[in-house]
Design brief:
The structure is a homodimer of 226-residue chains. The first copy, chain A, is α/β, with parallel strands linked by helices and 226 residues long. The first copy, chain A, is built from 8 helices and 11 strands. In chain A, the strands form 2 sheets. The first copy, chain A, has an 8-stranded mixed sheet with strand order 3-2-1-4-5-8-9-10.
């Protein structure tokens, strides 16, 4: 049986792109939304898009309860409130993956807008039940490109979290997505760096008139990693 | 006549690698050190290494006074004090390039260790005379690889600063180094992000047993940029 991945707020641009790519990689996808009806509609559209049937939609609380991996893909402004409302739904054995990024758009310069904890992830870690391992991943991938499923990603994504086994599980999951390589960057203190790199990618997009700026690490294993 | 590039603290690993690569790119290099004698010795060694004569050594104050570009390549711990001692040597028309990065190595996790200003560059900007444009570049390049001049870099380096013309001048300088592409990431507020990426590269090096982790941006102009 395929592993299940839930996407809280999976009807937004980032969630949709990830749902499509992860479904194509062979996972069962549970797209969550505040409105179960909207989630079902979007799931049907996504299945049609990839000619499959492995994407289902439901309310956020329902999808969290059922999945091995739970990805948070709401806008950061709603992240804390959304997670607070769902914290009772998690169960031991699941891995949480934060995909949200706090950003500010002041004076034409995009910057990370970390809460007092130092990063978005450090704030959300306080809300998630302590026995659920907290990881961050997919943060620097352009939503626009994720949705363009005909275009290979051919880039890296950075995985962090204090629980090593959880990082390994998330990395294995990512490795199944063609053209995407996980880079394990260690503990949760990396979150501020990675969230900064999301801001950097947007800066680069604006300056170079692209929507697809993303990262590749050179100097480690040959690419792609097996 | 070739443009002159001064490297304050250019006898350290980062400075040496940059001196070699920039000399090979056709610039006249002035390697500075607290000891003029040490600088001259190191300059002679570097000239021998590349079979050239365009690298000269002298005291830090002397090299600053003479160059179009002034790169600060001391360890961050000495950056503020060194720059304070040299601020009287700058003259209008020069461009300052900060290459230093504040890092902490706590509990086996490398992280940026920004001063209260928010980044190393923001602290140093307060020390440099206000009429000298302040930029940052070369921060994420591995010192080890810079010195291995037989190996092409084949990566990007991020250029920031509030003065657009200065960023362009630094980018043009970088473009002359084979295999190195400048990415203009806008204003000085990017410094914290880029300094974080230095920490990230070191994290990746440790985890993947490399000394050469570095960045390439995908999704903008084809590489290398002309």
């Amino acid at each position: 049986m395929a592993e299940k991945i839930a996407l809280i707020g999976g009807t937004g641009p980032q969630g949709k792109g990830l749902a499509l790519r992860l479904a194509q990689a062979g996972f069962d996808i549970l797209v969550g939304s505040r409105s179960a009806e909207r989630a079902r509609e979007k799931a049907a559209e996504m299945n049609a898009r990839i000619g499959g049937g492995s994407i289902a939609g439901s309310g956020n609380a329902d999808v969290v309860a059922e999945a091995e991996f739970v990805l948070l893909t709401v806008p950061f402004e709603n992240a804390a409130t959304t997670l607070e409302g769902l914290r009772g739904q998690f169960r031991k054995g699941q891995v949480f993956v934060d995909v949200t990024v706090p950003l500010s758009f002041d004076k034409g310069q995009v910057n990370p807008a970390a809460p007092p904890e130092g990063s978005g992830s450090l704030q959300l870690r306080k809300i998630l039940p302590p026995d659920i391992p907290f990881t961050g991943a997919f943060k620097t991938l352009p939503a626009h490109l994720l949705e363009e499923i005909e275009t290979p990603l051919e880039c890296d994504t950075f995985v962090y979290g204090d629980d090593k086994e959880a990082r390994q599980r998330v990395s294995s999951m990512i490795r199944k997505v063609p053209g995407l390589r996980p880079i394990d960057v260690g503990g949760l203190s990396a979150a501020a760096i990675i969230e900064g790199m999301t801001a950097l990618a947007i800066r680069i997009n604006r300056r170079y008139k692209s929507r697809e700026a993303r990262f590749r690490i050179l100097g480690i294993d040959p690419w792609p990693q097996k």
